[in-house]
Amino acid sequence: MDSSVFNVYANALLDLSISKNEVLEMRNEIKEVKKIIKENNDFLLMMHLKTVKIEEKYQIIDKIFNSCLSTLRSFFKVLIKNNLSFYFYDILKESLYRFDDYLNIEEGTLYISSPLKEGEIDLIKNIVSKKINKQLDMEVLIDKNLIGGFKIVLRNDIFDSSILSRINNFKKALKKE
Hints:
The chain has helices spanning 3-19, 23-39, 41-48, 54-64, 70-81, 88-103, 120-132, 163-176; strands spanning 105-112, 135-142, 150-154, 158-160. The chain is an alpha+beta fold. A four-stranded mixed sheet has the order 2-1-3-4.
């Protein structure tokens, strides 16, 4: 599927959310629904089946996502009608980029070697947030391979302050000499 189609729908959802004054709420729901869809691959396959009638798919959307904004449920129904249900995840992923750009949010992952003390994660977030001039929305994961320190992976940047990174850089420097 051509990614420009994803862009068109992502922009349409953002525009609709702006007009309904529900941008932040929609962004949060997109993030949650994206997780649900990623964890349930069978959902996309079932929504794409030609043997399941469109009305049945609409009912499934209403049942599974009954707590979501009606705008998002209606958006899914448009995708179903246009035979794009198999691309829910990709369109939501692209939509999340649009919403983040609009809200000046950068999504990423903070990898740490072991649990940090209370407030340390917020301190790291604040420092990086100031550096990139955006609000951060980060998932925190423990990566024992880091040995110590941390690594932050954003859409277009990596901030690596891990001991593993320092060791690897030291190895590279030794190989050059």
